[in-house]
C-alpha cells in the first residue's frame, strides 16, 4: 500500500512537471502573468485528480472524463493566456495531441515489457499489472511526455509563425481529431475491445496483443501528426521564399527603371551640355548647381565608386553603399564582373541583394550591442573570377552574441521574432544550386563570412591573380 502511494505521488509530481513544461511551451507564443501560470497549474492538477478518482469508481465514464479533462486544459489556455484566439487553440491542441499520443504509446509499450518480464522471469501463468506498476508506468510515461513537449517546442515554432486568422483553428482540427480517435481506442482497450480472443488464447495474450496493437496505432498516429506538421512547415517555408522572391523581382524592376532613366539622361546629354554652357556663360552659378542636382537626382547617379562591368550590380552596390554609409558602416568594395558570367542579372540581384542586406543588418546589431564604440562596423565585398569560377565573398562585423549561433547554409537568423526572417539565404541557395555552385557561411575571427562560388560558362577564362580569397 505504501509503495502504491509513493508511485501515485511520483505520478502527480511528473504531471506537475508536464504542466510546467506546457506553460513554457505556450509562453513561447503567448503571454501570461505569473499569477495566471500558478492558477493554470493548480486548476489542471485539481482536474486531473478529480478525473483519476472518478475513473477508479466509474470506469465506464472514462471516455467522457478524458474529454472533459482535455476541455478543461483547452479552456484554461483560452482563459488565462493572452494572444490571438486561434493561436491559443493551436497551442492547446498541439499539447493535448503530444500528451495523448506520447503517454499512450509509452504506457502501452511499458505494459507489454512488464507483462513479458512477469511471464518469463517470474513464471506467472496469467500476469496482470498491479496498482503500483500502473502508477510507475504512468510516471515514466509522463517523463517521456515532458521530453516530447520540450522537443516539440523547439520544432513547432515555424508552424505557429506561418498560420494567421482562421488558419490556426483549421490546423488544430486534425490534431484534435487524432486525439479523439486515440482516446476512444484507449477507452475501448480497457474493455478488451481492441483485441479479444474470447478466451481461446488466454488473458495474457489478449493483453499483449491489445497493448501491442495500441502501440502500433499510436505510433502511426504520431507519424501522421508529425508528417502533417512537417508538411505545413514546408508549405510555409515555400510561401515565405516565394514572397521574398517577389520582393526581389520588384527590386530588380526598380533597378531596370533606374537604368532606363540613366540611359535617357545619357541620350539627352548633348542638350544638357548646351543648357549648362548657357548658364555658365551667364555666370548663373546657383541655377547651374540646381540643374546639375536635378540631372543627378533624375537618374540617381551621384558620385559612386562602383564600376563592375554590370549595370545591375553597379546600381545595387551603389544603393547598398549609400545605405551603409548612412548607418556609419565602413564600406570596402572590390567587385569585377567577368564578361562571360552566366548568372542572369535578376539572379545577381538576388545574390548581392540578400547577402548585403544580411550584412547591413548584422552591422546594425553590432552597433546596438555597443561594445566597440571606438571603431565602426565594416562590410567588405569582393567578387571576381578565379580558377574558371565566379567568386563572391562578403565579410561583415558580427556581435559577440551571434558568434555562438550555429551556422548552416539554410535559413540563418538570430532575431527573436523568426517570422518572415532568415529566408534571404534560402533564395541565395536556390540561385547557387541553379548554377551548380556552392555556398559557405562561417565565422572568421571578428567577421561573419558568406562565400558563393559559381562555375563560369567559358572554360578558357583565366584566373585573376590580383583577387585573393580565403576559400
Q: Can you walk me through this structure?
A:
- With 471 residues, the chain is of the alpha+beta class.
- It contains 13 helices and five strands.
- Strands 1-2-3-5-4 form a five-stranded mixed beta sheet.
- α7 packs antiparallel against α8.
- The C terminus is likely disordered.
Question: What would you say about this model in short?
Answer:
This protein is an alpha+beta fold and 471 residues long. 65% of the residues lie in helices and 8% in strands.
What distance lies between the first and last C-alpha atoms, to the nearest angstrom? 70 Å
Q: Give the low-pLDDT segments.
A: 406-422, 459-471
Beta-strand percent range: 5-15%
Number of helical elements: 13
Overall pLDDT, averaged? 76
Give the tags.
single chain; alpha+beta; Heat Shock Protein 90; 2 domains; five-stranded mixed beta sheet
List the helices and strands and how they pair.
Blueprint: H1 2-27, H2 34-57, H3 62-80, H4 85-121, H5 131-155, H6 157-162, H7 167-190, H8 203-267, H9 269-281, H10 285-299, H11 311-326, E1 330-335, H12 345-369, E2 378-386, E3 389-397, H13 424-434, E4 438-444, E5 447-455
Parallel strand pairs: 1-2
Antiparallel strand pairs: 2-3, 3-5, 4-5
Amino acid at each position: 500500500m505504501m509503495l502504491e502511494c509513493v508511485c501515485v505521488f511520483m505520478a502527480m509530481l511528473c504531471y506537475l512537471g508536464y504542466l510546467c513544461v506546457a506553460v513554457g511551451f505556450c509562453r513561447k507564443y503567448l503571454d501570461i502573468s505569473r499569477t495566471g501560470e500558478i492558477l493554470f497549474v493548480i486548476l489542471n492538477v485539481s482536474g486531473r485528480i478529480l478525473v483519476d478518482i472518478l475513473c477508479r469508481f466509474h470506469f465506464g465514464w472514462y471516455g467522457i472524463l478524458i474529454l472533459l479533462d482535455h476541455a478543461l486544459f483547452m479552456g484554461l489556455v483560452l482563459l488565462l493566456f493572452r494572444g490571438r484566439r486561434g493561436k491559443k487553440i493551436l497551442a492547446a491542441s498541439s499539447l493535448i495531441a503530444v500528451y495523448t499520443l506520447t503517454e499512450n504509446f509509452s504506457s502501452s509499450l511499458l505494459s507489454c515489457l512488464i507483462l513479458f518480464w512477469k511471464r518469463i522471469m517470474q513464471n506467472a501463468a496469467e500476469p496482470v499489472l498491479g496498482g503500483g506498476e500502473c502508477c510507475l508506468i504512468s510516471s515514466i510515461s509522463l517523463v517521456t511526455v515532458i521530453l516530447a513537449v520540450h522537443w516539440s517546442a523547439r520544432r513547432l515554432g515555424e508552424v505557429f509563425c506561418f498560420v494567421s486568422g482562421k488558419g490556426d483553428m483549421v490546423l488544430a482540427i486534425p490534431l484534435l481529431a487524432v486525439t479523439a480517435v486515440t482516446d476512444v481506442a484507449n477507452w475501448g482497450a480497457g474493455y478488451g475491445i481492441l483485441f479479444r480472443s474470447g478466451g481461446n488464447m488466454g488473458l495474457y495474450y489478449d493483453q499483449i496483443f491489445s497493448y501491442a496493437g495500441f502501440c502500433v496505432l499510436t505510433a502511426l498516429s504520431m507519424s501522421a501528426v508529425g508528417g502533417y506538421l512537417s508538411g505545413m512547415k514546408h508549405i510555409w517555408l515555400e510561401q515565405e521564399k516565394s514572397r521574398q522572391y517577389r520582393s526581389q523581382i520588384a527590386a530588380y524592376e526598380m533597378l531596370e527603371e533606374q537604368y532606363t532613366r540613366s540611359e535617357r539622361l545619357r541620350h539627352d546629354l548633348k542638350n544638357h551640355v548646351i543648357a549648362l554652357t548657357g548658364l555658365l556663360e551667364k555666370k548663373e552659378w546657383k541655377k547651374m548647381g540646381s540643374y546639375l542636382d536635378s540631372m543627378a537626382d533624375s537618374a540617381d547617379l551621384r558620385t559612386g565608386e562602383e564600376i563592375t562591368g554590370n549595370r545591375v550590380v553597379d546600381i545595387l552596390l551603389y544603393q547598398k553603399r549609400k545605405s551603409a554609409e548612412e548607418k556609419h558602416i565602413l564600406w570596402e568594395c572590390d567587385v569585377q564582373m567577368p564578361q562571360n558570367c552566366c548568372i542572369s542579372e535578376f539572379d545577381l540581384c538576388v545574390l548581392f541583394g540578400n547577402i548585403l542586406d544580411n550584412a547591413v543588418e548584422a552591422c546594425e546589431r553590432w552597433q546596438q550591442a555597443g561594445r566597440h564604440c571606438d571603431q565602426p562596423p565594416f562590410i567588405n565585398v569582393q567578387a571576381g573570377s578565379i580558377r574558371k569560377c565566379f567568386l563572391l565573398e562578403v565579410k561583415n562585423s558580427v556581435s559577440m552574441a551571434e558568434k555562438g549561433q550555429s551556422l548552416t547554409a539554410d535559413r540563418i537568423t538570430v532575431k527573436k521574432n523568426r517570422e518572415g526572417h532568415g529566408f534571404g539565404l534560402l533564395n541565395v541557395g536556390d540561385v547557387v544550386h541553379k548554377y551548380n555552385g556552392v555556398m559557405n557561411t562561417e565565422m572568421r575571427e571578428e567577421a561573419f563570412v558568406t562565400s558563393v562560388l559559381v562555375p563560369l560558362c567559358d572554360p578558357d577564362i583565366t584566373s585573376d591573380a590580383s583577387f585573393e580569397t580565403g576559400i
